[in-house]
Amino acid sequence: MPELPEVETIRRSLAPLVGRRIARLELSPVAPLRHCGAHDITARAGATITDLARRGKFLLLRLEHAPHLLVHLGMSGRLRHVGADEAVPPHTHLRLRFADDTELRYIDPRRFGGIGVCNDPTGADFPSIAQLGPEFDDADFTPSVFVARCRRHQGLQLKALTLNQHILAGLGNIYACEALYHARLRPTRVVRDTTDAELARLLGAAQHALRLGIAYGGTTLKDYVDGLGHRGTMQDFLHVYDREGRTTPDGHGPVERIVQHGRSTWWCPNVQI
DNA sequence: GCGATCCTGGCC
DNA sequence: GGCCAGGATCGC
User: Fold this and answer.
1) How many CA atoms within 13 Å lie on the side-chain side of A59?
2) Tens digits of per-residue pLDDT, A84-105?
3) Alpha-carbon distance A270 to A273, whole Å?
């Protein structure tokens, strides 16, 4: 479900949790645990949340003392801060209860996401975070750095490149399709047949797509909401994603759908060369 | 680098 | 019943 803009929106919406102590913690027996055991999670009961951070699509709940908690929402994960008396939906895997009778719930029907712990406040000791590429807004992440990273994967199609979290962290299927459209690049193009200038354009388009997504509070296609239940509005500004057979909103032409690596890509042949 | 795989649910 | 879904990992 959530890509970087959605996770960032959730992070911001959960700011009221900072400073609160986890009075009680409940972990489902089928919770998707990553690189840890149930006790690593349940032992965090009693700890105080000092900060909420994000790295790529990971949300970090920093606690007063390590280890910290981290969450990845996968395809169907949600985080909700609600009153503890609200009905508990199916597939609720983690509940962090606070003294004011509210709780943070992690809900994930498909369990493609997961929860884990890390000792480093940036999550750097967590395997899949350690392997992430730079953040889109990292000041050191210049076009030449991005091009150099891309050149290590000369055989990749540009669609796979944009989705590859080791090269640039945060894009998912929506923002990858939109970035390729704004960069005017055909998703089936291969890195080795792409100029440095084109790759630099792709980075700029990806950064733009992510910034826009954050500004609009994420994309609600179906059921994405932030921690307080608010929908995003980025869906009103998409140019190609899920628009097969329609024209781009800027009137540049018809949108086609192809399948790459088992996933849909929407793109506009009139624009993307 | 690619395809299969992990899951549940919604829609046709 | 089949197909599809905001993701990532693990084999070959």
Assistant:
1) 30
2) 999 999 999 999 999 999 999 9
3) 8
For A15-43, the pLDDT digits (tens) are: 999 999 999 999 999 999 999 999 999 99
Residue spans of beta strands (DSSP E) within chain A: 24-27, 49-55, 58-63, 68-72, 78-83, 92-97, 102-107, 114-118, 256-260, 263-267
Burial class (CB in 10 A: 0-12, 13-18, 19+), A78: buried
pTM beyond cutoff 0.85: yes
Chain C footprint positions (protein CB, under 7 Å)? 4-9
Q: For A101, which DSSP code?
A: S
Residue A241 and residue A100: Cα distance in Å, rounded?
41
pLDDT category of residue A111 using cuts at 50, 70 and 90: very high
- Could you say which residues 71-90 of protein chain A have a Cβ atom less than 7 A away from any atom in strand C? 72, 74-75
Strand partners, A83: A102
